[in-house]
């Protein structure tokens, strides 16, 4: 990965080639409002190409952890590094996120007045692509999630599972290295959830993407290679699934 991954101050020590994609080092997150310590001295690495599930009881800190991993939120203390470079005040977070990280949420946040194909193009604006390039890319993505025949549909004309597929295609618009998902199958019936899991497995295998998903579902977690269990803001266990 290039040195432009994170625009932090020049470092005299180049990152080793085997640097983890993400490093969380002694991270705490406090929410002073509720006097809550949501993350309590959390340390782990995630390497490129890993498929990780984050599990834990309600309120254990999973979403907070995912927000920090995705640079949507900053830790109160401790450090987060992306591709061997520390994220700090000088890091251009918008650039980092738009270039390298895709997000999939339980509520898909599709724009209601745009068609499926147009929704997929939204993250491509401001990236120096022509309209034709955007449409071309969006067509490839909609095909990759098996939704080509719904390109002109508005979100309200799609089923919940189909909307999630479009949201996943949109999250891939800028070819992110890392896909972060928060309860991606939470609103879906079992059959639709299974098809989204298959899609994730395909992205992991074919695109060699790094996937991190927060889930309450043992089935979703079993599809991953590694399960991090969080309890009271701490990592309770970190195990490989054998996949
Ligand atoms: N903005 C906030 N202000 C104050 N406290 C917060 C805030 N966001 C989260 N918390 C608290 O931090 C703790 C961790 O919350 P978090 O949402 O990360 O848990 P979670 O494991 O994702 O829960 P769930 O599975 O229910 O979504 C909880 O005690 C929660 O009440």
UniProtKB/TrEMBL annotation:
Presence of keyword ATP-binding: yes
Keywords tagged on the record: ATP-binding, Hydrolase, Lipoprotein, Nucleotide-binding, Transport
GO MF, one example: ATP binding
GO terms under cellular component: membrane protein complex; plasma membrane
Keyword Nucleotide-binding: yes
Limits of the ABC transporter domain: 22-243
Enzyme Commission code: 3.6.3.-
Family: Belongs to the ABC transporter superfamily. Macrolide exporter (TC 3.A.1.122) family.
Protein name listed in UniProt: Lipoprotein-releasing system ATP-binding protein LolD
Taxonomic classification: Bacteria, Pseudomonadati, Planctomycetota, Planctomycetia, Pirellulales
